[in-house]
């Protein structure tokens, strides 16, 4: 067994230095709800764990001057779900976060961890991508921003370079007449892993015609799918039955799922269409109220 | 192996011990502080038997590193009764048979108390969702849920 070193730096610079100079495998820990399980089951054997919860930027929720939001990568699910103002702006993101595990898990788990754990079934990630959020990344070569969809590249794999870590999510200002939603299919209503998850964010013009849409499918491919054909099915329409039918077909057509104990390929493909329709209707209802 | 000195406050008492980085909070509660009320069920955050309050937040102690307890405040089942006087939740669980084998009970009591502190008058559905992370393989849950609802009613009346 490797002699594990635990550090909890108080600044981003210190965290980057620790990660960049690590000799063995180094892991970033936010809530630890995935990391500790992986360590205990010997899936990973890191030499260094860098706990980022003492870094102020990682735990901050900020309503920015442009009307957007900045949410630290280690903000816990419970804290975000209890934030009434953020929830009002991004209810679909909250629907995703609220489905991450139990109350106990959400007491620790974060969106940053959910993203960087890179499960194709992660519940917060489809609505995060649908929202158009970006992530701010810091590393040994400086700071950069990236789209959320560019982080996870496959199961357990991310595009982050050695020493890089996600610091915060930046949500754009919410346009008028726009709304988001997330739903997943699971056999149980709680404590389960998505068989299919769908996040939708759409914007209507003053006449009620869809002017922009982002549709994201989870758990139906090795990574989250941002489906342009689904958005095309909605944009330019009043999101009526015909548009929803086209949306459902496009969602099913985009799936590249695996068969596993939670669902067959055929089931996932069918459910993706059904869910896409339902989630778009929920996002539409919200857009009309906003 | 380098062990780190940890000083933590559990149920109002200060504990100091040496901790390996691999040890979880559940490990150190049970093996270093000898507070064995918090139970190990799954060790993967699924069953909730190890539920404790960490800085006032409900967590699975099996998913917290022991080192993280340094300087923090923790509340466990051992601090729930006031001397010989049981907490109303504990009392109701006894009166209404809200337990059988008892392994899940400390975690459920800690989780239920956290709910009632947020929401003194939860619906049955709210109790069931809140306790979704606490597994019980004996009772079928019904008596647990009823015990929590009846304790809540008693506490509101008190």
Note the main attributes of this structure.
heterodimer, A: 5-stranded antiparallel sheet, 4-stranded antiparallel sheet, 24% strand, B: 158 residues, alpha+beta, 5-stranded mixed sheet, 5 helices
Structure description:
The complex is a heterodimer of chains A (290) and B (158). Chain A is an alpha+beta fold. In chain A, 33% of the residues lie in helices and 24% in strands. Chain A is built from 11 helices and 14 strands. Chain A has helices at residues 12-20, 35-40, 77-81, 84-89, 91-98, 103-106, 111-116, 125-130, 228-234, 241-254, 265-288, and strands spanning 5-7, 26-29, 48-51, 61-63, 69-72, 134-139, 142-147, 152-154, 157-158, 165-171, 178-185, 196-204, 210-218, 225-226. In chain A, helix 9 (228-234) runs antiparallel to helix 10 and helix 10 (241-254) packs antiparallel against helix 11 (265-288). Chain A starts with a strand and ends with a helix. Chain B has 158 residues and is an alpha+beta fold. Chain B is built from 5 helices and 5 strands. Chain B has a 5-stranded mixed β-sheet, covered by helices on one side. In chain B, helix 2 (88-95) packs across helix 5. The mean pLDDT of chain B is 97. At the A-B interface, helix 2 and helix 6 of A face strand 4 of B.
Strand and helix map with partners:
The complex is a heterodimer of chains A (290) and B (158).
Chain A: E1 5-7, H1 12-20, E2 26-29, H2 35-40, E3 48-51, E4 61-63, E5 69-72, H3 77-81, H4 84-89, H5 91-98, H6 103-106, H7 111-116, H8 125-130, E6 134-139, E7 142-147, E8 152-154, E9 157-158, E10 165-171, E11 178-185, E12 196-204, E13 210-218, E14 225-226, H9 228-234, H10 241-254, H11 265-288
Parallel strand pairs in A: 1-3, 2-3
Antiparallel strand pairs in A: 4-5, 5-10, 6-7, 6-10, 8-9, 11-12, 12-13, 13-14
Helix pairs in contact in A: 9-10, 10-11
Chain B: E1 4-10, E2 13-19, H1 25-31, E3 51-54, E4 57-60, E5 73-75, H2 88-95, H3 105-118, H4 124-130, H5 142-157
Parallel strand pairs in B: 1-5
Antiparallel strand pairs in B: 1-2, 3-4, 3-5
